[in-house]
Amino acid sequence: MRAARLALIIPLLMLSMIPFWSRPNSEMSTLIESMSLEQRVGQVFMVSANGQGVSDTVRAFLTEVMPGGVALFSDNGGDPAQTTASVNAWQAVATTIGAHIPLLTAIDQEGGPVTRLADGFSTIPAGWLIGALPVDRVRKVGQIVGQELGAVGINMNLAPVTDVQTIPDNSVMNGRTFGSDAGRVGAAAGALDQGLADGGVIGVLKHFPGHGDASDSHVVLPTVLDPLDRVQAVELEAFRIAIRGGAEAVMVGHLVYPALDPTPGLPASLSPRIIGDVLRGQLGFDGLIMTDAMDMGAIVENFGRGDSAVLALKAGVDLVVTGPHMPLDGQREMVHAVLNAIKKGDLSEARLNEAVGRVLALKAKHGLLTWLPPDPTRAAARVDQVTHQAALDAIFADGITIARDTGGLLPLKRSGTHTLVLYPAIYPSLQRVLAAHDPAIKALSFAQAPGDDEIGAARVAGRAADVIIAFTLDAAHQPRQAALINALPPGKTIVVALQNPYDYSQFPAVAGYVLTYMPMPAAFPAIGDVLYGARQAHGVLPVTLSIDLKAGTAFQPPS
User: Fold this and answer.
1) Distance (Å, rounded) from C-alpha 66 to C-alpha 94?
2) Residue 169 contacts by C-beta under 8 Å, 6 or more apart in sequence?
3) What is the rounded distance in angstroms from the CA atom of residue 190 to the CA atom of residue 280?
4) pLDDT, tens digit, 9 for 90 and up, residues 213-268
5) Which residues of 134-168 are buried (b: 16+ CB within 10 A; e: fewer)?
6) Cα dist. 50→18, 71, 72, 92, 155 in Å?
7) What is the pLDDT of residues 260-272, one digit of tens each?
8) pLDDT, tens digit (0-9, with 9 covering 90-100), for 76-121
9) Range name among 163-177, 330-344, 497-511 with the lowest pLDDT average
10) Which of 509, 502, 482 is nearest to 542 (CA)?
């Protein structure tokens, strides 16, 4: 069996230099024909299970369903050694059952708020920060993420997020999207996807047609009521740009888009019109199409487990992602439903084979039809966090953005000016990095939710100051922080938003507004350098904040 299968795989590996959508089908057809119906159905599922490694229960499950992929989450990994051992355990089972085909091993390593691997791995920029960077720096981020994931045996990243954030301060998208401008989002997504490929990992554009104007599909099935011209110009444009950059996989979201498919209550992930006519047809995408997790409220509250899997494949999906909260019995039910649908003629075998062909072709392109276990004891060295984090710290600094300086307060003067610095108490190094430029500064710290005494002290100190530098940490959702800033004289206040760009909405009259998008202590010295003119700010505002502060804004103070 192994020798025969190797004879089938070698020609497929030789195809890896041919563009994915242009490959001859004879070798792929031969491999597919050698597989049983059960083996083929398994290939179109990406499953999940709790815990590190493979328990006896999970082993039995894998042996039965023979999946094509696994989506890993935080509890499946740990440090680089633990994560490698866990991935190895999954692959060891996959390569000894069914057709002995290795798994697509996927994870959500987006960066910022959605980061599954942290212990021993580099801190990845949040989406807003990526959107503020030049595309060459974005590609470098992708390369680093790809190298670190590949170092532990993970071959697919469920990123980049390609949604355009058209709802300001959208709780489910904050820190995940690259911004509110479709062109910039598409370019950033394409660059990150290319960087992941450079690093040896498959990227996945998500959540098609776009989640930036929708409520949380983890909980409900959102309906996006935007008109067709707006959807084409914004949501689809970002994906169109990223797809043109060479994307190989797209994740379809659980979102109802009446402008694209008027069928009531039918999400994009189950819609033949949106998948076939729009994604395949209008956007010309011929790569792998996968669903968002099918355990999300948008699906489980509206469709049966088995029915949803069958509908997704009928609609043109190639890989059904079950999700981390779907019990093994539920995932098994989905696989059996697809098997039964094919046996009854409700789902054509031709459609199944088309989906299997795309899964296997993507594996072949990336050399994933064979597998050698990486050594867990060398995983940390392969990840090389120290080198990568140093590079990412420099990239963090490159994202610092000066969006506004109406008072001409920047660059700060090093002497002869009474400068007041207000900063969150959890980041005392902020005071030190500014004092390194001007030892005479006066500094006051405040709690995440400042008390009346702290606000009063800031008010008094602010009146005596010539210029005020006030650091905020998600003041958009911290009314007491906003109250502290609004107690200051706005004409001489520069706010530095450490995390949420939408903090600006709470105090739009301030003279200056600077953004860093993530509170990274290693990059704090660069903030001081920018404020005092020792370093140029390279970042560009990724989201529109007001009529005069639109996405793409970048102010440069005189040197």
Assistant:
1) 7
2) 476, 500, 502, 505
3) 18
4) 877 778 789 999 999 999 999 999 999 999 999 999 999 999 999 999 999 999 99
5) bbebbbbbbbbbbbbbbbbbbbbbbbbbbbbbbbb
6) 37, 11, 9, 17, 19
7) 999 999 999 999 9
8) 999 999 999 999 999 999 999 999 999 999 999 999 999 999 999 9
9) 163-177
10) 502
Closest to 313 measured CA to CA, from 46, 30, 97, 95: 46
- Residue length, the chain? 559
Q: Which residue out of 108, 292, 295, 474 is catalytically annotated?
A: 292
Omega of the bond prior to 324 within 30 degrees of 0, cis?
Answer: no
The residue written with tokens 């001409």 in the block is: 408
Q: What is the mean pLDDT of the chain?
A: 93
Task: Give the residue among 518, 519, 501, 507 at the shortest CA–CA distance from 462.
Answer: 507
Annotated catalytic residue 437: no
Of 79, 216, 218, 307, which one is the catalytic site residue? 218
Annotation marks residue 325 as catalytic: no
Each residue of 342-379: pLDDT tens digit? 999 999 999 999 999 999 999 999 999 999 999 999 99
Query: How far apart are alpha carbons 438 and 459 in whole angstroms?
Result: 22
Q: Which residues pair with 404 in a beta bridge?
A: 513
Query: Does residue 271 contact residue 291 with C-beta atoms inside 8 Å?
Result: no
